[in-house]
Specification:
mainly alpha; single chain; elongated
């Protein structure tokens, strides 16, 4: 009887230890994810603030002709303003990639990719990514993150986001087709 009781006690002790370790790992993961989400919120706010300094010529969505517009977007991509914008993306992307919710992670990574390539979207479709539309996209991302942090359902994407995402997908599909034709 004493040996049986000792074995039962040992088994229960082992189960308790395993349970506590799993609980601790889950709490650490949740804390790390919360830290990453807070960092991402900070980076999105920095992006929104950086947008305030966007040169007016990049925000117009028009030029005297198509060639002038492509030239302007090429210079935008190489501008000091864009380099400052790009500096925000690496920490934001790293934070977004740590989120376990696949819907939220995918949407946020799409937002970051489109914002980082705003000049490419504007090259293909002038005016697609204005200061206002970029700010709205950041606001959507902040809204999704806030809902997730409150444990509310993540809101569905707005029509403006979906239109921009479709344009981005089309731009990427066109680029792939062009490479296949050349290769």
């Amino acid at each position: 009887m004493g040996l049986g009781g000792a074995l039962v006690g040992a088994a229960l002790s082992f189960q308790g230890t395993v349970y506590q370790q799993k609980k601790l790992v889950g709490e650490r993961r949740q804390a790390a994810e919360g830290t990453a989400a807070a960092a991402l919120v900070g980076e999105l706010i920095r992006m929104r603030q950086h947008l305030a300094a966007m040169p007016a010529e990049y925000d117009r969505g028009q030029a005297r002709d198509r060639i002038a517009w492509v030239g302007l977007m090429t210079s935008a991509r190489e501008s000091e303003w864009h380099r400052g914008f790009e500096e925000i993306f690496a920490p934001a992307e790293a934070a977004a990639r740590t989120l376990r919710n696949p819907v939220l992670r995918e949407r946020l990574l799409h937002v970051l990719t489109m914002l980082d390539n705003w000049w490419a979207l504007n090259t293909v479709n002038p005016g697609a990514m204005t200061k206002r539309s970029m700010r709205e996209m950041i606001n959507h991302a902040l809204e999704w993150l806030g809902a997730w942090q409150r444990e509310d359902p993540i809101p569905e994407p707005e029509t403006s986001y979906l239109r921009t995402y479709e344009l981005w997908q089309q731009t990427q599909d066109d680029r792939v087709l062009k490479k296949r034709r050349q290769g």
